[in-house]
Structure formats: C-alpha cells, structure tokens
C-alpha cells in the first residue's frame, strides 16, 4: 500500500520526466555535446555524430561563421537549423534531419524559432537555402516548413584566354563608369531599372532594400571597384545598366555577381558588349575562369552565355523565406 507522499513523489517524478522530454522536443539552442550532435545532422556523414559535429563546428569557426543561430529539437537532437548571417541582412540556411520521413513534421517549429532569432537578434530580412535538384530529400520538408522554392538556378563557367585585341567599343553616347562611392545612388538606380520585367529571379524583387542587395553583392568573393561597371547613357543622362564582377583569388577565377539592363536598353546587343569588355578586362588580369548563375527561365541570358562559351557545371534549387 502506497502512502500519499509516495503517490505525490511518483507524480512529481512523472511530471519531471514529461517536462524533460518536452524540453528536448521544443526548439532550443543546443549547448555542449548536444551542439556537436546537432551540427552533425547538417553533414552527409553520420557516425560518429559527435566527431562529425565537432569537425563542422571547428571548420565554421575557422572561417569566421556566426554559430549563434544554431537551433535544434530532440534529445539527442533529431532536427537542426543553422542560419548564417551575411552582408545585406541576408541569412543562409542549413538544415538537417536524423530521419527525413519521421522527423519532417518537427522541422517547422525549429525553422520558425531560428528565423525569429535571426530576425530579432541579427537583423536578417531574408533567409535562403540552396539545394540539389528536385530529388534532394530536404526539398519537401523545407517547403512544408515554410520555405518557398524558386525555379532552378543554372551555374555556368567559361575559360578566359589571354587576348591581344582591343575590347569591343560601345555604341555612341554610351560609356562605362567604374564604381566610385559617389556613384552609389546611380548604381542603385540602375539596379532598380534592371529589375523591371526582369526574368532573373523576379520573386526576390522588393524583399530587401536595394542598399542591402548591393551590400550582398559586394560581399560575394572579393570586391574590386574597378570591376563594377555602370552603363551610362549620355543621351538620357541616366544609368541604363550594370555589370558587377567580384574576384575569387583562391581559384584564379571571378564571379559575375549581377548583370542587368533597363528595359529600353535591352535587345540591342549591349549585354554582350558589356560582357565581352569585362571578359577582356579579366583576361588582361590573368583571371582564368568566369562563373555565374542564371535563372532557368531566363532564355535570353542563357542564349548569351552559350554564345560566349559558358557551359553548365551545376544546378541548384533556391528556397527563400522573407522575415517580416
């Protein structure tokens, strides 16, 4: 026969166990060995979890990545979301599940907690992820959890050969102006005009201030102001396009971060002229390769890149979530 005290103690122990399980299930920032186990979910490697997670965390620290927005649920962790803040109030999302089938439903609350933390504490306005093609097992869980998938991006590259010939000239009353701080407002105007009726990821338009978009572009690779060009029309006394290229010194290559024209400047061969002049400038600097990404719906851009020798080397599906 049990006394009232025994029954009370048993209830307390039961409540404590239930609370501990709920604390493990609820989204939280993991710490200690749990953090290593959570981080290991982000890696395709599995056993041993702790060693894999420790390697990933050490690598992230060595690269200067912010690890503060790492969230998980489960004890031991079965779901993990990590948002890495970057310039322009952008956050890159990495997610992992112990079992895609069993743990998919638990992803949404962890993602929501991580996004709220990134927004409130780090000032992130837009979260994005890049996945493999449609067979990526995380695509469906992330979509169900609130990420919005966009059409695939095609990643292209072309080899740059040293050239002796002079770069092609631009039509009369058009000239290229390299980046200067005092031209920032004109670069922003050119960006805004280039977004009009654009086929290049139109879903992103308006999700962040243009100043943030420009900051993100600068943070890709190594910014070199001499490779950021404004296409200026003397006839209109206004900017009508931009081409932005950043260097990737570790591979002697460069990335075409963005190229766009105002509607009235399209269909005149100006994009090709700009790109030819840029590839000439890069070859003169002994850059060996130029890479870029293009929206798979953007047929005119894909035709241009194909004509200039670009070939596809990868494809990714972007997912986004605006944080308001």
- Counting DSSP E segments of at least 2 residues, the number of strands comes to 12
Tell me the Rg in angstroms: 25 Å
Low-confidence stretches: 1-8, 12-23
The CATH superfamily title of the largest domain? Gcn5-related N-acetyltransferase (GNAT)
Number of domains: 2
Shape field: elongated
**What is the CA–CA distance across the termini?**
59 Å
* Beta content: 25-35%
- Using the coordinates above, name the CATH class of the largest domain: Alpha Beta
Q: Outline the biggest β-sheet.
A: 12 strands, mixed
- Topology pattern, helix = H, strand = E: HHHEEEHHEHEEEHHEEEHEHE
User: Number of helix segments?
Assistant: 10
Name the helicity range: 25-40%
**CATH third-level topology of the largest domain:** Aminopeptidase
* The CATH architecture of the largest domain: 3-Layer(aba) Sandwich
Residue-averaged pLDDT, rounded?
90
Q: What's the assembly state of these chains?
A: single chain
What does this structure look like?
The structure is a single chain. By secondary structure, this protein is of the alpha+beta class. The protein has two domains: 145 residues, Aminopeptidase, CATH 3.40.630; 163 residues, Aminopeptidase (3-Layer(aba) Sandwich). Helix content is 35%, strand content 26%. Strands 1, 2, 3, 4, 5, 6, 7, 8, 9, 10, 11 and 12 form a twelve-stranded mixed beta sheet that branches. The termini are far apart. The N terminus is likely disordered.
């Amino acid at each position: 026969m049990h006394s009232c005290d025994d029954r009370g103690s048993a209830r307390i122990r039961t409540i404590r166990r239930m609370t501990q399980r709920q604390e493990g299930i609820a989204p939280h920032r993991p710490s200690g060995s749990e953090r290593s186990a959570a981080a290991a979910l982000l890696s395709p490697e599995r056993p041993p979890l702790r060693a894999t997670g420790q390697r990933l965390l050490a690598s992230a620290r060595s690269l200067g990545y912010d690890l503060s927005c790492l969230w998980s649920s489960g004890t031991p962790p079965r779901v993990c979301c990590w948002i890495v803040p970057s310039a322009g109030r952008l956050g890159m999302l990495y997610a992992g599940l112990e079992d895609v089938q069993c743990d998919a439903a638990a992803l949404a609350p962890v993602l929501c907690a991580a996004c709220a933390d990134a927004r409130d504490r780090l000032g992130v306005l837009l979260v994005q992820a890049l996945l493999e093609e449609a067979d990526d097992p995380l695509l469906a869980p992330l979509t169900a959890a609130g990420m919005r998938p966009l059409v695939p991006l095609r990643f292209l590259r072309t080899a740059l050969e040293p050239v002796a010939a002079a770069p092609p000239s631009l039509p009369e009353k058009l000239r290229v102006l390299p980046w200067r701080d005092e031209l920032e407002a004109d670069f922003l105007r050119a960006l805004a005009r280039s977004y009009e009726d654009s086929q290049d990821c139109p879903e992103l338009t308006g999700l962040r201030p243009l100043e943030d978009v420009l900051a993100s572009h600068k943070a890709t690779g190594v910014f070199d102001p001499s490779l950021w060009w404004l296409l200026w029309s003397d006839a209109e006394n206004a900017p009508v396009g931009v081409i932005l290229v950043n260097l990737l010194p570790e591979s002697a290559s460069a990335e075409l971060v963005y190229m766009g024209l105002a509607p009235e400047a399209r269909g005149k061969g100006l994009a090709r002229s700009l790109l030819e002049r840029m590839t000439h400038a890069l070859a003169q600097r002994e850059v060996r390769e130029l890479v870029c990404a293009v929206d798979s719906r953007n047929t005119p851009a894909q035709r241009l890149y194909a004509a200039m020798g670009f070939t596809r080397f990868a494809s990714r599906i972007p997912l986004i979530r605006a944080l308001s």
